Amino acid sequence: MKPPYFLIHLAKDLRIEWRSRDAVNSMLFFALLVVVIFSLAFDPTRAVSRQISGPILCVAILFAAVSALNQAWARELRHQVLDAQRMSPAPGAALFVGKVLANFLFVGAVELLLAPLFAIFYNLHVLGNVWLLLLAVPLGTWAIIVNGTFFAALSIRSRNRELLLPLILFPIFMPALLGMVLAISAILTGDSDPALWIKLLLGYDVIFTTISMLLFEIVLHAE
Amino acid sequence: MKLFRWFWLVLTLALLANGFRVAMFVVPVDQEQGEIFRIFFYHFPSAMMAFLFFFLSFLASIAYLIYRRSNTARAMRADAFALANAEMGVAFCTVVLITGPLWARPVWGIWWTWDARLTTTLVLYLIYVAYLLLRRFAAGPEMRTLAAVMAIFGYVDVPIVYMSTRWWRTQHPAPVIGGGADSGLDPSMWPAVWWNLAGWLAWGIFVVGLRYAAEYRHQLAEQRAALAALEAA
């Protein structure tokens, strides 16, 4: 039996990444640099670090993800792969979902590698419920990846596309960034209940995943 | 059409002049805030107009996506209309973002605060500036499709931004119009509000009409140039 289309796309992307490891390596190093630069710039002491580390983590992931997402579709442009995919019978949404899942796994891997370093650099002791981080961080990451992959596909055929992606992604991403930052800060400091912000992230993810899948066909075949 | 435009321009200027007169000289001064409260008569209509024109741009973007294959001529008109409205909305939004801090500085004591409505307006402004940038960076007919998709994303984002920042913090005066039992403007303020709403609506329609016609001609010229290039080849 043939696996569903999006799994084929996912397997292809994972295989390419496994051979080169371009995206994960560059993202990891980039995020690490952001973390180091911020910790030098702010000189985090114990009390402050809990408050600023959540936002810094989010911003580091956001920048790293954007740098990798720019390459996600550029890979398909070489040898007219994208044109071939337009002609294939697979629906556009399957291509999109495969790409999103692949990028989500890459960024997730970077986060897993980065988390211990982060805890060391900022002397973190989580005061809230640690397990909720396993909910808040993936939901926020999904929000970045689903919109980022969509807008990367949208900006791929424009002039200076590397610049255009953050310009259109950041304004749309702002509510999710707010939710992610506040949820992570609430968990790290243990002052308030992060449930509201996790719900916000969940709602954001559902809404934008749906419209992205509905509109991706149009973007793919935009001529 | 040209005569009608002149007539419309005269009407617009008359409405705006009268709006200015009523707002500045007729409405009595506010007891608590002093003369500065008069900026409200420009802040509020501009905000309403910005939301109206962004909404029209959103509708035109959907219309473009619907007609883009079946009825090219209508789709091009929809695209020109979406662009004209988005630009007008950004212009009004700029006015809102400038008059707001001018009022907030003497009354609140601060220029800016990250309150729900302020943040929403700012994010809305950024989204539509990004939309205009996308239209500039991408080229050709595919740009119109991409821009329409982007406009839909942006519009869907606005209520989410609003809800998220409302849960976060709120400082802007509670909804003055259509709020609770105690809310509502002083009756003496209404004439100035209505005159300015009418005046700025007329102004917006006038500018959008001009911009739409110019953009539509530009599109037709582009199409002719593309056809000529094809025939020459």
What's the domain count of chain B? 1
Q: Beta-sheet strand percentage of chain B?
A: under 5%
Any low-confidence stretches of chain A, pLDDT <50, length ≥5? Answer: none
- Structural class estimated from helices and strands of chain A: mainly alpha
Task: Characterize the structure shown.
By secondary structure, chain A is mostly helical. Chain A has one domain. In chain A, 83% of the residues lie in helices and 0% in strands. Chain A contains eight helices and no strands. The longest helix of chain A has 32 residues. Chain A starts with a helix and ends with a helix. The longest helix of chain B has 43 residues. By secondary structure, chain B is mostly helical. About 2% of the residues of chain B have low confidence. Chain B has one domain. Classes of the chains: A mainly alpha (223), B mainly alpha (233). At the A-B interface, helix 6, helix 7 and helix 8 of A face helix 4 and helix 5 of B.
